[in-house]
């Protein structure tokens, strides 16, 4: 099954998105619009990713997954510092609750570089793992060290590093390379090949980003890399087709089995998809 492991949709009338700063993204992106892109790209299913630190949005996303069986998983949001057990129980009781496969928090928006070291957050993450859910982490460069510590110490939780840990400008540097090697050495960590075009900016090509991708491949292997289009955010520096064709070029020299892992198999296993 070919799976896009990272995309978004939003309805601005129902769930305003205050994080949006770009006119291009300041409109509703409906699930039907994404589905058309997905089908043209040859994908069979997708994982829908939260946008807001708002449990109500996750409820809406689960309902979308219930109505659209090709959305095989939802990565939602809960307050990790509150009663995580109760929050997960609420979400699982909703329409589509069986599609909840992970929790995500935009750690990059937290001012604290060591937010993942906070005792309340650590307890919450441990409970996420106890419920069999993964955790998607999107971090800034200054948060890499705390992400390494948390992933190492909460070994019962599957961690999925969004956007390959956000290498600055889409270029490898010593700090990023070291963090990727360290995280790649932890068996409970996987990484998403997603969102890289926006890091590099307009005019990026598959060749210009090949260095960061191949470094991540060496660290994680194909069994722990997941492709994600990051649609519609990818429109800021390209489009869905460019995101897919670039990724296919990055891995076109790998055996077919390895390519199948990156484009679906890894997502199925790491998210425990239906």
UniProtKB/TrEMBL annotation:
Belongs to the metallo-dependent hydrolases superfamily. PANTHER family: AMIDOHYDROLASE, AMIDOHYDROLASE-RELATED DOMAIN-CONTAINING PROTEIN. Residues 3-273 form the Amidohydrolase-related domain. Signal peptide: none annotated. It comes from Microbacterium helvum. Pfam families: Amidohydro_2 (PF04909). This is Amidohydrolase family protein.
């Amino acid at each position: 099954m070919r799976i896009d492991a990272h995309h978004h949709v939003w309805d601005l009338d129902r769930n305003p998105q205050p994080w949006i700063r770009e006119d291009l993204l300041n409109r509703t992106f409906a699930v039907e619009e994404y589905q058309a892109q997905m089908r043209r790209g040859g994908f069979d299913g997708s994982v829908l990713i939260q946008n807001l630190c708002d449990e109500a949005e996750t409820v809406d996303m689960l309902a979308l997954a219930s109505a659209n069986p090709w959305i095989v998983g939802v990565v939602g949001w809960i307050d990790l510092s509150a009663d995580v057990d109760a929050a997960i129980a609420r979400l699982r009781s909703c329409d589509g609750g069986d599609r909840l496969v992970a929790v995500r928090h935009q750690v990059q928006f937290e001012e604290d570089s060591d937010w993942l070291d906070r005792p309340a957050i650590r307890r919450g993450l441990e409970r996420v793992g106890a419920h069999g859910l993964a955790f998607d982490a999107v971090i800034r460069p200054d948060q890499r060290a705390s992400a390494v510590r948390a992933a190492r110490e909460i070994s019962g939780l599957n961690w999925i590093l969004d956007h390959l840990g956000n290498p600055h400008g889409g270029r490898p540097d010593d700090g990023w390379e070291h963090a990727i090697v360290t995280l790649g050495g932890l068996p409970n960590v996987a990484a998403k090949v997603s969102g890289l075009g926006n890091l590099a900016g307009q005019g990026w090509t598959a060749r210009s980003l090949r260095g960061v991708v191949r470094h991540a491949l060496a660290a994680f292997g194909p069994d722990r890399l997941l492709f994600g289009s990051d649609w519609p955010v990818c429109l800021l520096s390209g489009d869905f087709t460019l995101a897919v064709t670039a990724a296919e070029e990055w891995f076109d020299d790998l055996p077919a089995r390895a390519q199948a892992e990156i484009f679906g198999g890894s997502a199925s296993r790491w998210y425990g998809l239906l």
